[in-house]
Design a protein that fits this description.
single chain; alpha/beta; 8-stranded parallel beta barrel; two-stranded antiparallel ribbon; 10 helices; globular
Amino acid sequence: MLHLSAAVDQPSAYDASSHVELARLAEHGVLDFVTLDDTFARPGLDALAVLSRVAPATGRIGLVPTVTTTHTEPFHVQAAVATLDWVSRGRAGWRLDVSTTEGEARLFGRRHAAPADALWREAAEVADVAAKLWDSWEDDAEIRDEPTGRFIDRDKLHHVDFHGTEFSVRGPSIVPRPPQGHPVRVVDASEGQARDIAARYADVALVRSVSAAQTRAVRDQLRAAAARFGRDPDALRVLAALVVDLGDGEHAAEPGHGGGGPRQTAQGPLYRGGPVDLAELIASWHGEGAVDGFHLTPAEPRRDLERLVNGTVALLQHRGLFRTFYPGSTLREHLGLARPVNQYAGEAS
């Protein structure tokens, strides 16, 4: 199954309605999910809050904000992501990221900046404790029995008692277990520091590369590492991440783009050409088994997303390479991922 997703980043937009418009357009194209980037390094809206606004205005598409784990309390992170899963009725994910600069650290005043390796190890602990907190409520922990006044079966709530290198969490969560069990975890695995956490915890790994061969090599590494961590490699989706500039008509306008593939830029791998050649690139890389799908960032958000949906996606659908309807209602169902079993189910509190 081919998986497609797109970014709805609009750095100058401070109105949620523009993000709603782009998310609805992506949903019209039956994309798996949209992402919204976020960082402490520049001004902008809170991605998780914006997608919480987008949730009731959409019906099927997955919603994946970037959530920086550095400087942010893990307990609050997991509760916010679980809340997005509830308000979207099972369509939430989160892209884990870290904050490495001293300027970002000064915004909080709690500690100095740390090396990226240490921050990604901390992010791995956040991913671990988030899953434990989501499981701290069993699925049927809520009773809501008005005659007896019982709201919760306390035997089905669990302390997680997590002790990491930077924080400890007792739990349980204050939010019931999310509809998906665990909202989908997305990690950009292009850099070495993040690759281990992607292999161990991610449901979706993003890989920025300029060729199918490069992407396949990273995909093979990730799947092998996932197996070493005791995971089923088939439960990890690896998506090639490209910036796409579709302003050049139906076909590629520059050598090295379009049919010749993307090229490296300061912003990452860039495809510049037309929707037809982009469809050919997607079909080729996926057909070769190099990727499970693509995450595409429009160079010009509204123009390029419209051309992606109405041109590239429509062509892939016409060729029978991409679905024409959502087979389920949750992001895990879009991605073909099982709902995780609760690790505490059956235990006494």
